[in-house]
Amino acid sequence: MNDTEMEAAALSGISSIGEAVSGRGENVHYQPQDQDEDEDDDDDVYYIPPRRPSLDLGNGAMDISNWHRVDHAVAPALSYCSMKSEENADNMEDMEDEDEEGCSTRIHLYRADSFSSCYSFDSDDCEKRTPKDKDIEEDVPELTDRPELITDPNEIRHPSLTVAFTFKAICKTLKELSDENLKTVKMMLWNRYPQTFTTPPHSMDIVDLVDRLLECYSLEVSLQITRSILEEMERKKLVDYLKTLCLRNEVRHDLSETLKKKYGKVCEGFTTQGAKTPIDDIYTNLFITTTCDNGPNIEHEVMTIEKLDSNREEGTRLSIDDIMSARRLQDMNMRSLLITGVAGSGKSMAVQKLILDWIEEKSHQHVTFLFPLPFRELKQFEGSKVSLLEIIQTLYPETKRLRDEDYRSDNCKMLFVFDGLDEYKGNLDFQNTELLCDHTDPTSLNIIVVNLLRSRLLYRGLFIITTRPQVKRCIPWDAHYDEIEVRGFCDSEKDEYFKKKFQDPDQAARVIEYISSLKTLRIMCHLPLFCSLVAEECQRLFTEQGADAELPRSITYMYTKLLLALTRHHRMSRAPELKPEDERDFLMKLGKLAFNMLEQGQFKMIKSDWKEVGISDEEAVVNSGLCTQYVTKPFVLFQEKVISFIHPTMQEYLAALYVFLSYSNHGKNIFEQHLKQKVRGMLKGHKKMDLYKSAVDRSLQCEDGKLDLFLRFLFGMATKTNLELIQPFCTSSLKWPTVIKDAMALIKKKLSEHHPPGRKNNLQRCLEELDWSASGAAAASS
Which stretches make up the Pyrin domain (predicted)? Predict the structure, then answer.
């Protein structure tokens, strides 16, 4: 072979440049396979086409004078994440704004395939690798199998559909898949939505995968994509699971809106009408402890009172977040929680704050649904056949969308809050009441309540019950409930309450200074109810008299307001209204007991001895709330129920009220013997100052000061403002025109005599009680 023939043969072994440039393949949708499979099947996927005859350029030099410079292939468009220019960044912000506003339209960003990604040629032999025709036919349907994502532009997005929820819902659903199924999901996403991913998503974890999905699509479309892929994988249970999450989320949102309107604001004081205050603006942390049966607060201005309870441990202080928290549920292994406390200690306020925190997602997020069912609202179902499900759906209509399995699922925690068990007057018979296990069975309200307390109904539910101390004694020990106690405010919280109550810092400072100057008021402000009464009175004076208003010095007046709040307003929801004569009789009997115990230095009574005084313990503890009941353990393995007044000063106040009403209604001076009193009445009649002279003399004889507060209350009873409040307890109109002047003269006379400093100081305090209504007294004397 000559040189010319050898050169021609060499040239025939390569393809021409023209063939290489023009050898463009079709833009075929490529389905990625596992790497190992790609390497093994590489020869099956591609074949080398027959070589075309080479272009004979001859022996001369190639003429390139007419060649033109060819630009590089245009780079592909930047992905959704990698847009860096200001213009593109602005476009992205616009799209995000539209998505947040609930617009269901969106812009699809498709990657423009580059020249090199679509067409290729071998640099050595310019042999084109062309996919086989049979594979083209198999890949084309993949494009048609991609589901059409349809969104209604007029559809209004439910407010509960947020980025946070959608992210969690899709993540929770995908986590239910096995590793192999998750790989399948990733491959299907890559095949159908290649514009979403810059690289194959095989290396992405679930968080990155869902994050990328939400970055490229709207919330609705992201959920639709997830559902369609799961449906094609025939994972019906997971499709239903995702739909269930969305349904529960919508119901939860609607329920939260209802609860926010109902419990977001609070009305303090005597009435439930008028302006209400947002609970966050007024709520102050309460003293909640794991130790129960603590008895009343025994802090006293004058006396040192021995411990009334028998608890040896102080217990752990809890916050609202700790009540029924996920950790506490796990540690205590309980489903029911009993919250007790004396009247006015803040039990209802505590659960109201818990409800609001759940609504605002600040706490208790392990609870899917929270249903407040106050006993005062449950009374409407008395006397009729009703199921627990009907009760819930009547009070909260948005729950009608829930299904039966939602009430029975371990993944759907429901918390029921029953506020005010002491307001329920049904027969709590735990031995003979019919067993009820189905929340859909109609029955009486009493059967539902008993079975709830026995934890037989909705055994996957969680229950919080608030009550005054006596009622808890009827709940059987085997009901498996935990118990905590609300004890009102600690000292620092008292100041915090008034700072929140008064928006004007100067007024708040004045009120705090005022209650600090009266130690008994300061002590009694451990009850949130009493704090609200003091704040209400001060606010009234600021409104009527201006910022320089003179605040009341009479503690008697504030205690009378507390008495009326408990026996009138708070009693209304617990028992029928008492007739005036029955109300007087009850207060006289309770006051007589208070006076006799005070003289003996007693502040608690065994319940078995209570019946001898002829007073209903239910009326004293539950209905009126003037007393409290608790258990003491004087000996090992021995318990006894005892009853005390809600505070020692309330016992002293009721004792003074009894003495005052005995004289004003019956002309009886309880400090004098019956015969002596009868003779004096026959000779010169009763004089009002005889009562006060006897009381002062008896008080001065008590070196321990056990009658000091009693004497202050007795003088405070005679002021005009207080007489107006206690008039309903009197049998006739009280007109004591000169009693204030005569009482002040009596006290000043006793101050001039020789008495111990402690007794003289108390007499000075008695003068402050009379000064409360100096202007009123002057008007009365005239």
Answer: 161-248
370 DSSP β-pair partners = 415
User: CA-to-CA distance for 761 and 747, rounded, in angstroms?
Assistant: 11
The parent domain of residue 496 ranges over 491-565
pLDDT in tens, 222-272: 999 999 999 999 999 999 999 999 999 999 999 999 999 999 988 765 544
Contact 390, 437 (CB under 8 A): no
> Do 449 and 467 lie in a common domain?
yes
pLDDT value at position 351?
Answer: 96
Q: Which of 401, 413, 420 has the alpha carbon at shortest distance from 358? A: 413
Residue whose tokens read 């021409």: 16
Give mean pLDDT, residues 275-284: 88
Question: What pLDDT is recorded for position 314?
Answer: 83
Total structural domains within the chain: 5
Residue type, 582: D
Torsion angles phi and psi, residue 288, rounded to 5? -115, 130
Distance from C-alpha of 297 to C-alpha of 299, rounded to nearest angstrom:
6
What residues contact 52, with CB distance under 8 A and at least 6 apart?
A: 15, 19
Q: How far is CA 346 from CA 414, 466, 508, in A?
A: 24, 10, 21
Q: Region 20-42: what's the mean pLDDT?
A: 41
Q: If you average pLDDT over each of 109-118, 207-216, 611-620, 634-643, which comes out highest?
A: 207-216
247, 348: one domain: no
- 395: CB partners within 8 A, 6+ apart: 371, 373, 377
Which residue from 50, 51, 48, 55 is spatially nearest to 11, judged by alpha carbons? 55
CA distances from 195 to 77, 201, 290, 465, 490 (A): 11, 12, 58, 55, 62
pLDDT of residue 22: 36
Question: Do 762 and 638 reside in the same domain of the chain?
Answer: yes
317: number of Cβ within 10 Å: 15
Separation of CA 579 from chain center: 39
- Same domain for 482 and 520, yes or no, is no
Contact criterion met (CB below 8 Å) for 213 and 170: yes
Q: Which amino acid is at 583?
A: E
Residue 135 has pLDDT above 80, yes or no: no
pTM for this structure? 0.77
Residues 254 and 357 in one domain: no
